[in-house]
Specification:
377 residues, alpha+beta, 4-stranded mixed sheet, 10 helices, 28% strand
């Protein structure tokens, strides 16, 4: 073996995406100055947990972290996939943080992936497990991912701070490569679906949220169904909370989603009564989430703003053929993703703003990533 040449990076931003692209492109990376000036320098618990997850699903990957956690060497291995895997995501970020990169890795594994993830299923920071089920998985089907064996099962819910949720993710492998898409027509919204949940609080919270959300949608379209998912006992996790996830489905088969979760802040167990009143009432939650969804629809584009990064990565991994997609306003995460794709995969997008609609059209020629892990078997 010759000396390994590492791609050098700095800082903690977009760490999980850099690790994902590093793994897919088999590029060893060296990241320095990870929060070097912060009060708590180095990698955070969820980032270390994500590295452990990469070790779980791949073979021969090599992780080196220095004592302060400010320097990380990562040499990707072969993504194995496999069944009956387990990973505890911890409580510093929700399961949604781990799902996005994991789903993409799973597609390029040696065997199809089935993994049980434990932790927080719904929080206000990362997309909820409901959003992955209703929006992210259908997005993958556009790129030729077989729908058989692609599912996310919610066994129990868990909100911050104590989690207690469990989901089982199954991802089939792509037999050769993804398929390029031309996807620029967002269509008109034909129906709105949603799911509200509550854990360790009264079911009434859900009904109030749904009623408030429907009050806004029913003026606009008749086909609105929001289901309830009230969990009790062991399936309700360890903390009280409630939330709602909404999806607008369009005539051209696009899914735009938003979600939110209300729960007590992390780490403050000994709260006095006054603080507990501060939580947003369910009625406001319902109205706010409905307005957020209308905002996403208004922006235009074939995916909502949280899915921009994933959409660009999938386009970049396609065969060497042109993919063309349209999104609403580019969000910071989407822009960072485009930079990372350029650095790791060498794929550049042609970006064309369309002032009339306020949308942006992006075109790229994929890097033609094939599922090589499968050939090694």
């Amino acid at each position: 073996m010759g000396k390994i040449s590492y791609m050098k990076l700095k800082g903690s931003q977009n760490l999980r995406q850099r690790l994902l692209l590093s793994t897919l492109s088999s590029t060893p990376i060296l990241i320095e100055d990870i929060r070097a000036d912060a009060t708590w320098p180095g990698l955070l618990p969820h980032e270390v947990s994500f590295l452990r997850l990469l070790e779980t699903v791949s073979d021969d990957c090599h992780v080196e972290i220095n004592e302060t956690g400010t320097k990380l060497k990562y040499k990707p291995g072969i993504v194995m996939g496999g069944k009956h895997l387990e990973h505890d995501c911890g409580l510093s970020r929700s399961i949604g943080y781990f799902l996005e990169p994991l789903i993409v890795l799973g597609l390029f594994g040696k065997k199809s992936l089935s993994i049980r993830l434990k932790g927080i299923t719904n929080d206000s920071k990362d997309p909820s497990v409901d959003t992955f089920r209703s929006t992210t998985l259908p997005l993958l089907k556009r790129f030729g991912v077989p729908s058989e064996g692609l599912e996310l099962k919610i066994e129990s819910r868990g909100v911050a701070p104590k989690g207690g949720g469990e989901v089982i993710l199954s991802v089939p492998i792509v037999h050769n490569s993804l398929k390029a898409v031309t996807w620029t027509d967002e269509g008109m919204v034909k129906r709105i679906r949603g799911i509200s949940f509550s854990t360790r609080v009264s079911v009434q919270f859900e009904n109030t949220m749904i009623h408030a959300a429907r009050g806004i949608f029913n003026r606009l379209l008749p086909d609105v169904h929001i289901f309830t998912d009230h969990k009790a006992g062991a399936q309700a996790g360890n903390s009280p909370g409630y939330g709602i996830s909404l999806v607008a489905e369009t005539t051209s088969g696009c899914f735009l989603s938003v979600d939110t979760t209300i729960s007590y802040a992390r780490g403050n167990d000994e709260m006095d009564i006054d603080e507990k009143k501060e939580l947003m009432p369910p009625e406001d939650v319902g109205e706010q989430i409905a307005s957020l969804l209308l905002g996403e629809i208004e922006q235009g584009g074939v995916v909502d703003s949280t899915h921009q990064g994933l959409l660009f990565i999938l386009c970049a991994l396609c065969p060497q053929d042109v993919s063309k997609v349209r999104v609403g306003k580019l969000v910071p995460y989407g822009i960072e993703t485009l930079r990372n794709i350029r650095d790791f995969l060498g794929v550049k997008f042609v970006i064309k703003p369309e002032p009339a609609t306020g949308t942006v059209e992006l075109k790229c020629i994929g890097c033609g990533l094939k599922n090589l892990s499968r050939k090694l078997s």
